[in-house]
Amino acid sequence: MEIVSAGSSSSGNSYIIIAGPATIILDVGLPAKKIKGALEHLGCSPEDVGAVLITHEHTDHVKSVRAISRCCVNAGFFASRGTVSRAQNFCYVPEERIHLMSSGDSAVLECPGEDRVVIRSFSLSHDAAEPLGFSVEAGGEKLAVVTDSGIITGEIFEAVKDADQLVFEANHDEEMLMFGEYPYPVKVRIKSDLGHLSNVYAGDVLARILEYRKSGHGVRPPGQKPLRIMLAHLSFHNNIPLFAKQTVEDRLAEKGFVKGGDYLLDVAAKEGLTFMPGDSDD
């Protein structure tokens, strides 16, 4: 299984997931031209896309719903009822192609042969109508995406703790946010339980996930590969990729986790393709 960020920031987000025989897009907050370019780079055509997953109705996640619906003619759109009702451009998606999901639901994509691709949803804590996070399971692997959540609830942790690949929000550096140019109410909103995760918070939760992956003897089970992490949804004004990466790596090092052994980590670029660490872009 492979996930590629076509661009990730507070300005726009979209990811391409290759899950066995299935091609999936998660969020379409970038111009459709960029999303189609990412598909082309991966050797996929819009007609290959079988599912489009939408986390919530904010523009940086739904900007190109209409255009992607037109070109990805074989794709079903998976989102919550709240998201569909609040995102006006869903009115351009044929009703029979919209699949409503709630927290805890699962959907199986029809694929050639005996391959099964399972999509599962879970609630996020964000100031949106009914935001959902998603995991995808295929070929014995699990991938999960967690962005746009002010806290990591017990439900979120349970949904992603056993993932092999994890796209995880590290939205802001707290000092940059608090001393930056944003109005104070916006700063409060970002720091709230319905806002976004800071670099420090992200590092602490990732340490908990890595701890869960260890056996009772405090070591990784034999044959377990490192957790592959892509930090995502960085704020353009309140974060720097180097800050996010270094802060998270420092928090993990404090807990005794070793980069390259326990985990691999990179940061999704605001523009252009970013591959999950361990994947090749050849």
- CATH C-level class: Alpha Beta
The CATH superfamily name is: Ribonuclease Z/Hydroxyacylglutathione hydrolase-like
Helical content stands at 25-40%
**Rg calc:** 18 Å
List unreliable stretches of 5+ residues: none
Query: Spatial order of the strands in the main sheet?
Result: 6-5-4-3-2-1-14
Average pLDDT confidence is 95
Order of helices and strands: EEEHEHHEHEEEEEHEHHHEHEE
Number of helices, where a helix is a run of at least 4 consecutive DSSP H or I residues:
9
Coarse structural class: alpha/beta
Distance between the termini: 16 Å
Describe the structure.
It is globular and about 50 Å long. A hairpin with a 7-residue loop joins strand 7 and strand 8. The chain has helices at 32-41, 59-62, 65-71, 81-86, 154-160, 174-178, 184-191, 199-213, 241-254, and strands at 2-9, 12-19, 22-26, 49-53, 76-79, 98-100, 106-109, 117-123, 132-138, 141-146, 165-169, 227-232, 263-267, 274-275. The protein is α/β, with parallel strands linked by helices and 282 residues long. It is 27% helix and 27% strand. The two termini are 16 Å apart. It has one domain (2-272): Metallo-beta-lactamase, Chain A (4-Layer Sandwich). The strands form 2 sheets. It has a 7-stranded mixed sheet with strand order 6-5-4-3-2-1-14. The chain has a 7-stranded mixed sheet with strand order 7-8-9-10-11-12-13.
Task: Spell out the key features of this protein.
single chain, 282 residues, alpha/beta, Metallo-beta-lactamase, Chain A, 7-stranded mixed beta sheet, 9 helices, 27% strand
